[in-house]
């Protein structure tokens, strides 16, 4: 497969994301009477979170995954788990070195660890089979196998993203609101109606107020630490379990669990999947709803971008670091992981499966991060800026690394 042919294959899904994002940005301007204003984006985002995203995850899992697939493809969840683990560690290093604003730390770690394991995989992996010169083109089952690998990847990615990444962004939202509350304490205006102009300029009063606010904040932290120390082991364990259950109750996570159950249970799957399924209309309806996930998410991100270009507080070095982690460090590590797993006999013989594992290390940040940022009202503009640059570079990065992967596997 030639470089330019591969470039077209790899760049098409990325260009689709960028074009829809531009439309979203245009819809959020005055030229469209703010058709996609902040309120509209917030309400649309709630629909994505509660209806569209769960439908997409369930439809993908229930239709394409069987119990045999789950057993034979057991290394794929391990591979995705390694991506989240290694990407999370690298993101944490970026945060510690560059020291962004505290409420953006979770967003940066999420951008480094959570890749777009959904629509890009669904387009790129099966498309490779149809190209002349592809090392996988001789296999007559290549396209269907590629679609199954990509669908399984999307379902697993949804499970990881809506648990681990969801927790990161949710924690960032809590931290952001805590910082806003602390800032409001520091801003103690002089409301004395008898105060003169000179009284407002007295620096001593300001210093005293700042000191009082600092003492108050410090006392709050100390009291919370003491309360934490007094908690017994069982109370802490109960708190951890409660937090885990709360994260698992997110609608997309519930959909992933139910989808796995339907996919792995033949009699349940036969109820809704297939031409002869008595309840196939349910699966068709869910699939139709799931199709709204990606365009809606991209429109929201494009709308946030119009504000983000003016008000985002993200250092250029942070963007460079995220790009370097996603398109340089992770792909190189991915090659080592897949080659090592193959030598130890942990992978199926199908080279397309190994190619899919490598591509998972090379993807831009997941679109769901933008949904979560909008949901918890934290880092929305910064998230849009990260998307803009990572998706612009993704076309070239995916092309170069895909060429390297196919050269290794051939």
From TrEMBL:
GO terms for molecular function: transmembrane transporter activity. The chain crosses the membrane at residues 12-36, 43-62, 74-95, 107-128, 148-169, 248-268, 288-305, 317-340, 352-373, 385-408. It is a multi-pass membrane protein. The keyword Transmembrane applies. Keywords: Auxin signaling pathway, Membrane, Transmembrane, Transmembrane helix, Transport. Pfam families: Mem_trans. GO terms for cellular component: endoplasmic reticulum membrane; membrane. It is found in: Endoplasmic reticulum membrane. GO terms for biological process: auxin-activated signaling pathway; endoplasmic reticulum to cytosol auxin transport. The keyword Cytoplasm does not apply. Involved in cellular auxin homeostasis by regulating auxin metabolism. Regulates intracellular auxin accumulation at the endoplasmic reticulum and thus auxin availability for nuclear auxin signaling. PANTHER family: PROTEIN PIN-LIKES 7, PTHR31651. Belongs to the auxin efflux carrier (TC 2.A.69.2) family. This is Protein PIN-LIKES 7-like. It comes from Nelumbo nucifera (Sacred lotus).
């Amino acid at each position: 497969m030639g470089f330019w042919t591969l470039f077209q294959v790899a760049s098409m899904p990325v260009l689709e994301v960028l074009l829809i994002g531009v439309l979203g940005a245009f819809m959020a301007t005055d030229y469209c009477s703010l058709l996609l204003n902040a309120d509209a984006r917030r309400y649309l985002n709630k629909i994505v979170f509660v209806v569209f995203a769960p439908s997409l995850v369930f439809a993908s899992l229930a239709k394409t995954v069987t119990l045999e697939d789950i057993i034979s493809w057991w290394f794929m969840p391990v591979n995705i788990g390694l991506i989240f683990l290694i990407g999370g560690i690298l993101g944490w290093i970026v945060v510690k070195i560059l020291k962004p604003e505290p409420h953006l730390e979770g967003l940066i770690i999420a951008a480094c660890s959570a890749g777009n394991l959904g629509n890009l995989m669904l387009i790129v992996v099966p498309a490779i089979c149809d190209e002349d010169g592809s090392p996988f083109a001789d296999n007559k089952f290549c396209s269907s196998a590629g679609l199954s690998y990509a669908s399984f990847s999307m379902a697993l990615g949804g499970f990881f993203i809506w648990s681990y990444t969801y927790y990161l962004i949710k924690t960032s939202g809590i931290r952001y609101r805590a910082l806003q509350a602390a800032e409001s304490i520091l801003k103690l205006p002089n409301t004395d109606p008898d105060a003169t102009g000179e009284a407002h300029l007295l620096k001593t009063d300001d210093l005293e107020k700042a000191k009082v606010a600092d003492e108050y904040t410090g006392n709050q932290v100390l009291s919370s630490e003491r309360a934490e120390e007094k908690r017994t082991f069982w109370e802490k364990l109960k708190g951890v379990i409660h937090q885990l259950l709360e994260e698992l109750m997110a609608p997309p996570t519930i959909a992933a669990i139910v989808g796995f159950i339907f996919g792995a249970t033949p009699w349940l799957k036969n109820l809704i999947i297939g031409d002869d399924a008595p309840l196939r209309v349910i699966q068709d309806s869910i699939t139709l709803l799931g199709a709204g996930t990606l365009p809606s998410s991209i429109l929201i991100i494009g709308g946030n971008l119009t504000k983000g270009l003016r008000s985002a507080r993200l250092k250029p070095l942070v963007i460079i670091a995220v790009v370097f982690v996603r398109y340089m460090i992770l792909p190189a590590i991915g090659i080592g992981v897949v080659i090592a797993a193959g030598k130890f006999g942990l992978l199926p013989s199908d080279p397309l499966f190994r190619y899919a594992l490598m591509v998972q290390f090379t993807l831009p940040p997941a679109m769901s991060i933008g949904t979560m940022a909008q949901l918890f009202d934290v880092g929305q503009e910064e998230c849009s800026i990260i998307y803009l640059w990572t998706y612009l570079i993704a076309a070239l990065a995916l092309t170069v690394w895909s060429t390297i992967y196919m050269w290794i596997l051939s």
